[in-house]
């Protein structure tokens, strides 16, 4: 059940902390690319201009324009522009009762800019790539969960869990990533991390829901278990004009279960620390004001067993641990 021998988070990414030049470069790159991620209306105009299949979107830049955007058939999606791009900026509007959630989210994020978007039903997944001057390489795929309760109920959170790799990646995924990378290179001379969120409708139609200019969590927590020290080499190559070498991914499955405060999304006055007992999992504790003291971190298990078996091992262990006042979804991997 040990994860550490194959964990990028436990090896390669920790080594980045000892490489000040590379760590500083990644930090500055994420900061410079952030505008490309959170400005939704500009992003979707770019994607549509290059013929990339994205759900129909309409921008808003004020309370009045947002109110007008809410006058459309249910369901639809509202996505706010905000530097905090961690799932919480997205609200699915299924009825007029959700309007209050939309405006509460706007207040919490301090944003009145974004898009309303066509709601698409299907299976979602994420593919993360590293973009260099001459090529891009895939780092992994994953299926993630954002809603706070089982069966996809409740508000979007910072993340409730993920599984890697995704077992239903559409055959046209690479073609859409090619087009997206070409568009970003042409318009912004882009290089760096790129996480692409896709959805496949039951009829086989593939859509790019959005892209993120960073490693996404909890998706990358699961993806990283399949990577090795080659990731550090690839990141260093992406700093230059060199071609990035492909990374050999280990034949492992991984499941990540996240702990989130039971009173989410209410901001907590302080962070409740947990003293978890010794275990065989990769435990990642999140620190920072962005979590609003409601998100504790994640627990990842990997191996050659099925996602279901790996998840059950985490749940069996969590049954013996008091994680109060945090909670976790109990249907990851099922």
Briefly characterize the structure.
This protein is α+β, with helices and mostly antiparallel strands and 334 residues long.
Write the layout of secondary structure elements.
Layout: H1 12-16, H2 20-38, H3 40-49, E1 57-60, H4 63-69, E2 76-80, E3 90-93, H5 99-109, E4 114-118, E5 123-131, E6 136-149, E7 153-164, H6 173-188, E8 192-200, E9 206-212, H7 219-223, H8 230-239, E10 253-261, E11 282-285, E12 295-303, H9 307-318, E13 326-327
Antiparallel strand pairs: 1-4, 2-3, 2-4, 5-6, 5-8, 6-7, 7-10, 8-9, 10-12, 10-13, 11-12
Mind explaining what this structure looks like?
The chain is of the alpha+beta class and 334 residues long. 28% of the residues lie in helices and 28% in strands. The protein is built from 9 helices and 13 strands. It has helices at 12-16, 20-38, 40-49, 63-69, 99-109, 173-188, 219-223, 230-239, 307-318; strands at residues 57-60, 76-80, 90-93, 114-118, 123-131, 136-149, 153-164, 192-200, 206-212, 253-261, 282-285, 295-303, 326-327. The strands form 2 sheets. Strands 5, 6, 7, 8, 9, 10, 11, 12 and 13 form a 9-stranded antiparallel sheet that branches. It has a 4-stranded antiparallel sheet with strand order 1-4-2-3, with helices on both faces. Mean pLDDT is 90; it is low at 1-12.
């Amino acid at each position: 059940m040990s994860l550490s021998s194959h964990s990028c988070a436990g090896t390669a990414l920790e080594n980045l902390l000892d490489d000040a030049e590379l760590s500083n470069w990644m930090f500055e790159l994420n900061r410079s690319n952030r505008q490309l991620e959170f400005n939704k209306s500009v992003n979707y105009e770019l994607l549509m201009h290059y013929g990339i299949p994205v759900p129909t979107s309409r921008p808003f830049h004020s309370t009045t324009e947002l109110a007008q955007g809410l006058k459309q058939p249910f369901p639809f999606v509202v996505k706010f522009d905000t530097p905090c791009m961690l799932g919480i900026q997205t609200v699915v509007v299924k009825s007029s009762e959700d309007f209050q959630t939309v405006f509460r989210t706007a207040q919490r994020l301090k944003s009145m800019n974004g898009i309303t978007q066509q709601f698409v039903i299907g299976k979602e997944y994420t593919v993360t790539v590293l973009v260099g001057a001459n090529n891009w390489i895939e780092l992994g795929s994953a299926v993630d969960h954002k809603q706070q309760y089982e069966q996809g109920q409740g508000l979007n959170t910072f993340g409730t869990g993920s599984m890697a790799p995704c077992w239903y990646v559409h055959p046209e995924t690479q073609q859409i990533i090619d087009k997206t990378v070409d568009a970003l290179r042409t318009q912004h001379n882009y290089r760096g991390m790129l996480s692409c969120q896709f959805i496949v409708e039951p009829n086989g139609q593939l859509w790019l829901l959005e892209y993120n200019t960073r490693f996404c969590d909890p998706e990358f927590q699961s993806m990283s278990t399949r990577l090795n020290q080659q990731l550090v080499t690839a990141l260093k190559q992406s700093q230059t004009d060199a071609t990035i070498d492909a990374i050999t991914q280990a034949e492992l499955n991984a499941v990540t279960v996240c702990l989130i405060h039971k009173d989410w999304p209410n901001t907590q006055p302080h962070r409740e620390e947990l003293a978890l007992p010794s275990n065989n999992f990769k435990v990642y504790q999140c620190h920072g004001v962005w979590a609003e003291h409601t998100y504790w971190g994640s627990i990842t298990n990997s191996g050659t067993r099925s996602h279901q078996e790996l998840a059950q091992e985490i749940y069996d262990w969590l049954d013996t641990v008091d994680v109060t006042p945090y909670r976790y979804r109990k249907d990851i991997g099922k």
